[in-house]
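pinned: reference chain
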Amino acid sequence: MHEWALAEAVISTILNVAKEKGAKKIIKAEIKIGTLQQIEVDVLTFAFRELVKNTPLEKTEIKLKPEEVYFKCRVCGVRWNFSNATSALGREKSEAIHFIPDLVHAFIRCPRCGSPDFEVVGGRGIWVEYIKISK
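pinned: its C-alpha cells
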C-alpha cells in the first residue's frame, strides 16, 4: 500500500536525522500530512506502529498533523481549498490524485475563471516537521 511506503520513508528520514545529530533517544516526531494525497491516516498510523517495532523509534511519540491544501489561480488570483474541489471529482479521479498528486492540474479548474493554471499553496506531500531527541 502507498501509506506503507510513505511510513517507511518517514521512518528512514527520522532515523537518519537522529543519527546525524548523535541522538541517544528519539523522544517525539511530528509529521505533517498534506491533504492533497488523501492519505488514509488509519492505514498510515497502523504502518507506523508496525514498522517501528524493534527500532529506536519503538517508544517515540509520533504525532500526525494534517495540512489543508490551498490553490491559487495564476490567471485571476482566486484562492480555494482542496476540500471544496473534491466533491465534483468522483472516486476514480480522486484515487488518481492520491497516487500522483500532480494530476490535480488535469482534473481541477479555478472555480472563478475555469483556468487549469494554478499553483498548489501548501498541503502537498508528507514531511517530518519536528524531531525531539536527547543526546
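why pinned: The chain has a mean pLDDT of 91. Helices lie at 2-20, 41-51, 82-86, 91-99, 104-107.
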